[in-house]
Amino acid sequence: MSTISSRVAEPIFAAEGFAKRFGAAEVLRAALVQAWPGRVTLLLGRNGSGKSTLLRCALGLLGAETGAVRWRGRATLRPRVARMAREGLCFVPDAGLAVPRRRIRAHLAMLAAAFPEARRLTDLDPFDVSPLLERRVRELSGGERRRVELTLGLLRNPRCLIADEPLTGLAPADQQRTVRALRDAAGRGAAVLITGHEVELLMQAADEVVWITAGGTRVMGTPEQTWRHPEFVRDYLGPRARTGLRRAWKPHHEDPDRRWGGDVGPGASPTRWPSRLRRIWLPMAGAAAGIWITVRLAMAAFGAETGTLTVPVVGACALLS
After folding, report:
1. Which residues contact 320 (CB under 8 A, 6 or more apart)?
2. Mean pLDDT over all residues of the chain?
3. pTM (two decimals)
């Protein structure tokens, strides 16, 4: 994985110094997040910490007390998502991207008419939405709707993709496809900024992690550095969750077959059976052998007959082990 110092000269998108209050509650205080071409930035934080609020303020969808946005080298205090969208930014909110009354085919047709790149990519179907083309958005389940929204965002092939909670509501297989699609978008040079709570999967996609806490943001560095950060582990992951997740996690540049193939989770590792043999069966066999030797030596010392007791002794050894 490339280090943070090897990034390009400047981010394509940067939200800097944002503060936001809802009544007496201060949600953001000098929060900052950036998106770099060819990289995936992961914004993590507890529920209510201000992740979505920061993104919406930076895109001009929500007013803020302070804050500025730099987009493609130009700074502004009044960001406009429509203008940035015309210049290559795509925002996939946590809900509500697709028009409820329109059919999926109509959405794809509108996308192809507006963006030449989408016309070239319309044959791609990373989330298997082709069976849904004749259905209206309001007729879809939550997971199906999310697949459609992600398809609309990714088919644009944007220069900067901002996705709020992209994995929410998706089945495990679709979550894996989404992570792979996000990495592919970064591989084509897009700046990708995502949020979410599916730490194991999202860490596999990320190049850099930003933690939002107490109204501010902290750049944690690479996922490897983030896993080792004591405050992040204590206040966000919790020690038990961190142990289970970290055991199965692999960075996206290592072991691609394991990263995308099969199930995800601590119990689904391809080394499951060798690990179980080492941790369970070998100690049990050793304990049984030790008990067997102890019993035979004791019987020999007291001159007891062993031939008729072989089967009961073996059973007792197995039970005790």
Report:
1. 287, 288, 291
2. 83
3. 0.74
